[in-house]
Each structure stands twice: as C-alpha cells, then as structure tokens.
Design brief:
This protein is mainly beta. The chain contains one helix and four strands. A hairpin with a 2-residue loop joins strand 1 and strand 2.
C-alpha cells in the first residue's frame, strides 16, 4: 500500500545503502556487459551504461545525487518489472 520504490545495495560487510525512489538522471557510454542475477539462473549479455548518476532519497528523507555502480541499473530495472533475461 505504499507508493515507494526501494532498493538496498551492499556496500561492504554489514553495510547497505538504501535508495528510495531512485532514478537515473545522467548516463554515459553504453557498453556490452555480462551479468548475473539472483532472480534468474545463468548469465546474460546486456548493454549497460558505464557511467550513471542516480538521484534518490535516503531513509531520513534527504535527497542525494551520486555516481552509481552498474548493479544499480539492474535493480532499477527490477523496480520497473524488467529482468536481465527479457
């Protein structure tokens, strides 16, 4: 019943970054990329952006804009109902 899109990305042992309503606001350099996913067996060849900037809120409600790793693109795809096998 909540209108929130939430992802959590592991940064290090026991440390996670929670992103609420993340959106990619800048993307550069589309590259070929082999990736796997815990939701789908196997590895898939996709195209991902090498450089992205994501805007999101943290759990305190503060907004952030920062460079994001490629995994964040896959997690945002999940929020949109897209799997790497699609």
């Amino acid at each position: 019943g909540y209108n929130k899109r939430i992802i959590a990305v592991k940064e290090s042992y026991g440390e996670y970054k929670t992103m609420i309503n993340p959106e990619i606001i800048e993307k550069k350099w589309l590259i070929p990329y082999w990736e796997g996913c815990f939701s789908v067996e196997g590895r898939y060849f996709n195209r991902r952006y090498f450089s992205t900037v994501v805007r999101y809120q943290d759990v305190e409600g503060d907004f952030h804009e920062e460079s994001a790793p490629i995994i964040v693109q896959q997690e945002i795809d999940h929020l949109d109902g897209v799997l790497i096998s699609d």
